[in-house]
Amino acid sequence: MCERFLLNELEQNQTGEVRKILSEPEMKRRFQDIGLICGTKVTCVGKGPFGDPKAYEIRGAVVAIRNSDAEQIEICPEKISEKGV
Predict the structure, then answer these.
(1) What does the pLDDT read at residue 83?
(2) What is d(CA 50, CA 25) in angstroms, rounded to the nearest whole number?
(3) What is the pLDDT of residue 1?
(4) pLDDT score at 82
(5) How many CB atoms lie within 10 A of CB 36?
(6) pLDDT tens digits, 28-84
(7) In the beta sheet, which residues pair with residue 42?
(8) Which helix (H) or strand (E) holds 76?
(9) What is the rounded distance in angstroms from the CA atom of residue 33 to the CA atom of residue 45?
(10) 42 or 2: which carries more pLDDT confidence?
(11) Are 19 and 1 in contact (CB under 8 A)?
């Protein structure tokens, strides 16, 4: 089991797996509509000029999500392996 980690904490090019949606039902439904459900792999692929919003690849599509919304999504980040080790 991994430690508690929120989607907005992913660094660029880091991937994680959705574990839990912590938001109200209306926002939870919006996340589901863009493919964010438990078990989905999400990769941070970019960020806005001031770090907000961030762009995430979700099921082959790139979606911008505000940090305030992304902090409602609990994920398990994949370990980042160092090249050459």
Answers:
(1) 43
(2) 29
(3) 66
(4) 45
(5) 22
(6) 999 999 999 999 999 999 999 898 999 999 999 999 999 999 999 999 998 765 444
(7) 16, 58
(8) strand 73-77
(9) 20
(10) 42
(11) no
Q: Does domain 5-77 have CATH number 2.30.30.90?
A: yes
pLDDT in tens, 16-42: 999 999 999 999 999 999 999 999 999
Closest CA to 20 of 12, 30, 11, 31: 31
Do 6 and 77 contact (CB within 8 A), yes or no?
A: no
Phi and psi, residue 16, nearest 5° = -145, 165
Strand order, beta sheet including 5-6: 5-6, 73-77, 15-21, 41-47, 54-58, 61-65
Lookup result for tokens 């574990």: 19
Helix/strand/coil (H/E/C) assignment for every residue in 15-73: EEEEEEECCCHHHHHHHHHCCCCCCCEEEEEEECCCCCCEEEEECCEEEEECHHHHCCE
